[in-house]
């Protein structure tokens, strides 16, 4: 089921949250709405599911205009951060509740509950109450309840926020598996870029009520349009250096680093620039030597993460295969990969 937002706007009183947003989610696609708190991603999700009515614009499911329809009439499944399970009901009763509301027969409800419980791997928990379940199990119950109605659209609002790190990893793959197996169109709201990159076909990064960029995870990571997008994707995060154009090169103000870049051809000398360097592009195998002092080292198992401060006070991060010959306080001369450097103008846009 394709989802189309056509010139969608939403205001609360005099406060404009979203204005003239266009968004097209393909049938069977899983899209992430990614951005910081207050950017409008949850408002967009709530408008799609029918909790909020648009101030203007249209929302279409396929060719059907659902702008004025209630949530029940839209046939959407929603999973919230809180799970919202009924504590006095068993797992089976929680899952089957949407069908009970539809007044389906007990036999049909039991059959559908058994099918969906097997799909989400909780068929051995049907007689338990929510208080007897772990966080991951409760999350599976919430997913099963959203999917049992066979919705046209699945909406996920920060569904993994209450889980520990190991469970988040497990549930990321489980939700993606379910979405692929059912072929349902899904939208994930999150502020966690790892969730967005690992679970979704495309990502729409939002800032102040606008979609800044929409692309596949790899496209967005390798070809961000703005410094904001580059800074939002990547773990460990990208490092930024500020300097100026000088004879077709990026130069730090103290002259300690000069990096010739094809992107700067024709850029007037003295133009303010920001250079983005991802941790995997600084350390070993680059073409531009950079001297600095290690101020932080973190062992991450097979890899080590380092913070290196340059003579002018700027800092770069480096992630390398685990090594024991470098420690905080050491002076190093590592290489930077100029071909992978990202250059942004004073307005934050990519050059």
* Global morphology: globular
Number of domains: 2
The largest beta-sheet arranges its strands as 6-7-8-3-9-10
- Architecture per CATH nomenclature, i.e. the level-2 architecture of the largest domain: 3-Layer(aba) Sandwich
| Helical residue percent band | 25-40%
By CATH, the topology of the largest domain is Rossmann fold
* Terminal Cα span: 37 Å
CATH top level of the largest domain? Alpha Beta
Total of DSSP H or I helical runs spanning 4+ residues: 9
Estimated share of beta-strand residues:
25-35%
CATH superfamily of the largest domain: P-loop containing nucleotide triphosphate hydrolases
Structural class: alpha+beta
Question: Major beta sheet, specifics?
Answer: 6 strands, mixed
Q: Can you write the helix and strand succession as a string?
A: EEEHEEHEHHHEHEHEEHHEEEEEEEEEE
Would you report the number of β strands?
20
Walk me through what this model shows.
25% of the residues lie in helices and 34% in strands. By secondary structure, it is an alpha+beta fold. Helix 4 (106-119) packs across helix 5 (135-147). The model has no long low-confidence stretch (mean pLDDT 93).
TL;DR?
With 351 residues, the protein is an alpha+beta fold. Helices cover 25% and strands 34% of the residues.
Give the secondary structure arrangement, pairings included.
Elements: E1 3-12, E2 15-25, E3 30-34, H1 41-49, E4 56-61, E5 64-65, H2 71-74, E6 76-79, H3 91-101, H4 106-119, H5 135-147, E7 153-157, H6 165-182, E8 185-190, H7 193-199, E9 202-207, E10 210-215, H8 217-222, H9 227-232, E11 239-246, E12 249-252, E13 258-260, E14 272-277, E15 282-283, E16 288-299, E17 303-309, E18 315-321, E19 331-336, E20 342-344
Parallel strand pairs: 3-8, 3-9, 6-7, 7-8
Antiparallel strand pairs: 1-2, 1-4, 4-5, 9-10, 11-12, 11-14, 12-13, 14-20, 15-19, 16-17, 16-19, 17-18
Helix pairs in contact: 3-4, 3-5, 4-5, 5-6
């Amino acid at each position: 089921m394709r989802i189309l937002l056509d010139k969608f706007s939403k205001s609360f009183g005099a406060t404009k949250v979203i204005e003239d947003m266009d968004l097209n989610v393909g049938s069977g696609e899983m899209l992430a709405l990614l951005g910081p708190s207050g950017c409008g991603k949850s408002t967009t999700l709530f408008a799609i599911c029918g909790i909020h009515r648009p101030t203007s614009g249209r929302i279409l499911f396929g060719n059907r205009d659902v702008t004025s329809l209630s949530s029940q009439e839209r046939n959407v499944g929603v999973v919230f951060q809180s799970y919202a399970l009924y504590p006095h009901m068993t797992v089976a009763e929680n899952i089957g509740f949407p069908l009970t509301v539809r007044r389906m027969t007990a036999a049909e409800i039991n059959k559908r509950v058994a099918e969906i419980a097997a799909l989400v791997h909780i068929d051995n928990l049907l007689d338990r109450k929510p208080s007897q379940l772990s966080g991951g199990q409760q999350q599976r119950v919430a997913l099963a309840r959203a999917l049992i109605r066979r919705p046209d659209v699945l909406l996920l609002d920060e569904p993994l926020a209450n889980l520990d790190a190991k469970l988040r990893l497990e549930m990321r793959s489980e939700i993606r598996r379910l979405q692929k197996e059912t072929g349902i169109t899904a939208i994930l709201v999150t502020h966690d870029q790892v969730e967005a990159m690992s679970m979704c076909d495309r990502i729409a990064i939002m800032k102040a009520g606008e979609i800044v960029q929409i692309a596949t995870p790899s496209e967005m990571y390798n070809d961000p349009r703005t410094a904001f997008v580059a800074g939002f994707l990547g773990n460990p995060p990208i490092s930024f250096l500020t300097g100026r154009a000088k004879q077709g090169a990026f130069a730090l103000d103290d002259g300690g680093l000069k990096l010739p870049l094809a992107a700067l051809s024709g850029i007037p000398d003295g133009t303010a620039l920001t250079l983005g360097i991802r941790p995997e592009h600084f350390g070993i195998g680059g073409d531009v030597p950079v001297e600095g002092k290690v101020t932080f080292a973190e062992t991450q198992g097979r890899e080590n993460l380092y913070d290196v401060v340059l003579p002018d006070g700027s800092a770069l991060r480096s992630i390398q295969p685990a090594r024991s010959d470098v420690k905080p306080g050491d002076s190093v001369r590592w290489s930077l990969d100029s071909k992978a450097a990202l250059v942004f103008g004073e307005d934050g846009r990519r050059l």
